[in-house]
Amino acid sequence: MTAEIINGKALADELRNEMKVEVEELKKQGIYPHLTVVLVGDNPASKSYVNGKEKACRETGISSDLIELPTSITEEELLALIERLNQDSAVHGILVQLPLPTHIREQQIIETIHPNKDVDGFHPISIGRMMAGMNTFLPCTPFGIVTMLQSKHIPMEGKHAVIIGRSNIVGKPVGQLLLNENATVTYCHSRTKDLQQFTKQADILIVAVGKPNAIHANDIKEGATVIDVGINRLEDGSLTGDVDFESAKEKAAFITPVPRGVGPMTITMLLKNTIKAAEGLEKL
Ligand SMILES: NC(=O)C1=CN([C@@H]2O[C@H](COP(=O)(O)OP(=O)(O)OC[C@H]3O[C@@H](n4cnc5c(N)ncnc54)[C@H](OP(=O)(O)O)[C@@H]3O)[C@@H](O)[C@H]2O)C=CC1
Ligand SMILES: Nc1nc(=O)c2c([nH]1)NC[C@@H]1CN(c3ccc(C(=O)N[C@@H](CCC(=O)O)C(=O)O)cc3)C=[N+]21
């Protein structure tokens, strides 16, 4: 079997065009959706992601501003900035780019962002609402993955979804969203014994490890759907995922590429959450 490639970039463009219309409608009502992005330090990868987010906002008619801070900023100063953004009624969404320097406690920062402005969906209140299946800001990468599966009418109900990775931003929440969609979910991680025993059972395999070639064709079941979340920059500057795409695409039924797979969908869901934040919480 040769897999159908799920073009995340094309789907992202399509959804962004729809959102553009929604944003225009909001503006007619006097609501100007606005995202504030906070970037601490000068990590080149973070800068590049943040640029992508700003460009996507512009294209959708969402206004955004970037607050760049030196690595030397203290946790107190960053918390004070977030408190100020929480109070600012012109700011609908707040995104603090991760990772943060080690002297700043990430969890403190995440918990200070007002849940009504938590467009990343990382606040414990957002996570709790997601677990309870309530309306909330869903974390962007998991939300993007489920949206991709739905766009291709790939059934989740009753299917075995195997997740490799258990981070708070990808692995754990994507498993929860798939569970909400009635999949049977297995989590694997670095302490999993005999990983292949699990991956070979997966109808839907989500790979969020952060290592090139973590998964090959012989790890997957014929006809599976393979979602590659990994973003790895190689020495030659090119980007690659966690899956050996060339071999896996001969065995899977559906597969996402890197680049132009999950990444653009992550940004698109951020735009969606920002619009939702601007529309106001009464809808939450
Ligand atoms: N496309 C997108 O929009 C996004 C892409 N990413 C990318 O996705 C990847 C994962 O990100 P993130 O979740 O933040 O990463 P983390 O490093 O936080 O998590 C990686 C996970 O993989 C597990 N793992 C590591 N090695 C193995 C192994 N050999 N076998 C099985 N499991 C293993 C770890 O296990 P343990 O918990 O035991 O350590 C951990 O749970 C990265 O490449 C990142 O750049 C991230 C966010 C968005
Ligand atoms: N608070 C916070 N929220 C995040 O959502 C967040 C974060 N911190 N820290 C880092 C990760 C990573 N992430 C990506 C977003 C888009 C692409 C993306 O658009 N990738 C393009 C390629 C981009 C390129 O060429 O560099 C693609 O895969 O086609 C990738 C990765 C969001 N993250």
TrEMBL record:
Pathway(s): One-carbon metabolism; tetrahydrofolate interconversion
Q: Name one GO cellular component term.
A: cytosol
Q: Which reaction does it catalyse?
A: (6R)-5,10-methenyltetrahydrofolate + H2O = (6R)-10-formyltetrahydrofolate + H(+); (6R)-5,10-methylene-5,6,7,8-tetrahydrofolate + NADP(+) = (6R)-5,10-methenyltetrahydrofolate + NADPH
Output one GO BP term: L-histidine biosynthetic process
Residues the record lists as binding NADP(+): 165-167, 231
Matching entries from InterPro entries are given as: Aminoacid_DH-like_N_sf, NAD(P)-bd_dom_sf, THF_DH/CycHdrlase, THF_DH/CycHdrlase_cat_dom, THF_DH/CycHdrlase_CS, THF_DH/CycHdrlase_NAD-bd_dom
Q: Which parts of the sequence belong to the Tetrahydrofolate dehydrogenase/cyclohydrolase NAD(P)-binding domain?
A: 139-279
Organism domain of life: Bacteria
Q: Please give the coiled-coil regions recorded for this protein.
A: none
The UniProt keyword set, sorted, is: Amino-acid biosynthesis, Histidine biosynthesis, Hydrolase, Methionine biosynthesis, Multifunctional enzyme, NADP, One-carbon metabolism, Oxidoreductase, Purine biosynthesis
Q: Which Gene3D superfamilies does this chain map to?
A: Leucine Dehydrogenase, chain A, domain 1 (3.40.50.10860), NAD(P)-binding Rossmann-like Domain (3.40.50.720)
One example GO MF annotation: methylenetetrahydrofolate dehydrogenase (NADP+) activity
The EC number(s) attached to this protein equal 1.5.1.5, 3.5.4.9
All copies of the Tetrahydrofolate dehydrogenase/cyclohydrolase catalytic domain together span 6-120
Free-text function comment from the UniProt entry: Catalyzes the oxidation of 5,10-methylenetetrahydrofolate to 5,10-methenyltetrahydrofolate and then the hydrolysis of 5,10-methenyltetrahydrofolate to 10-formyltetrahydrofolate.
Share what the entry says about its subunit structure, partners included.
Homodimer.
| NCBIfam families tied to this protein | PRK10792.1, PRK14186.1
Q: Which family, according to the similarity comment?
A: Belongs to the tetrahydrofolate dehydrogenase/cyclohydrolase family.
What is this protein's record name? Bifunctional protein FolD
- Source organism per UniProt: Virgibacillus salarius
Q: What high-level taxonomic lineage is stated for the organism?
A: Bacteria, Bacillati, Bacillota, Bacilli, Bacillales
